[in-house]
Give the backbone structure.
Amino acid sequence: MGKIINGRKVAKDVLNRVKEQTAFLKERGISPCLAVIIVGEDPASLVYVKNKQAACEKVGIISRRFSLPESTTEEELILLIKKLNADSSVHGILCQLPLPRHINEKSILRAIDEGKDVDGFSARIGFDRNDIAPCTPQGVIELLASENIDIKGKNCVVLGRSNIVGKPMALLLLLNDGTVTVCHSKTKNLIDITRRADILVVAIGKPRFITGDMVKNGVTVIDVGINRNADGSLCGDVDFDSVEPKAEYITKVPGGVGPMTIAMLMQNTIVAAMRSNAQN
Ligand code: NDP
């Protein structure tokens, strides 16, 4: 039976730690502040932004929301980002994705000052050991650390190569001395690769894709996928029932990686505030 890594508990621990760090900074006259930019009225984005602001409130981080109309031009958005880059009272800047089609996402993400890029998207694949890394993959590393699962020298297999999850996930595992294989939709003989994994991270958006026959005994499985079943409930990319008996550690959906993303965003904001304080 696999031990379930409880993302809700680990996320709570991270948020408690962030709360203490926020209080520490406030005692020294620094009020950590996250600027949240949303362009347009995409319903899912509105919910994500609301959840991020609620998390800020919970841990004592000030959140400043900038709600811009759908018609905002790329130049106007870059101008706002430049203003926030120059504002020393703002420590983190988050631009909620997706952006309207007429705005080039890359240009916007690159406009965010590297030290304030708490989503970790501007550097994309270029980040290094001490840089702020994208939140979801960083959450996966935190989940592994919570169970003292050593990454060093392990065969780590990542399914998915998106800029938001797969690629930065592979890089973070590599930075933690894992031996990393990245698989995607064109990968041949996938099962031969997944069966060799000591640590398998799945982020493809295909419900219950990974089944028990695709993993070896003693594997650690982290399921990043979030898919909706016909009845409205959520499931991951891993067929929990067939994989769990073979796994040493495994995450569930919901309650695994999901809660970690916002927790890591809060942590990144505090790291950005601490670093900006150290520089001033
Ligand atoms: P994308 O759709 O951007 O990327 C999916 C990746 O999976 C692609 O690289 C694709 O390959 C690969 N893929 C698709 N089918 C297969 C297959 N049969 N075998 C191997 N690889 C395959 O998705 P995201 O990375 O944005 O998200 C992945 C999942 O993670 C989604 O379910 C999403 O909802 C979830 N997610 C969860 C988060 C959380 O907080 N827990 C945060 C972000 C995402 P190719 O490049 O060749 O097309």
Observations:
- The longest helix spans residues 258-279.
- The radius of gyration is 19 Å.
- The chain has a mean pLDDT of 96.
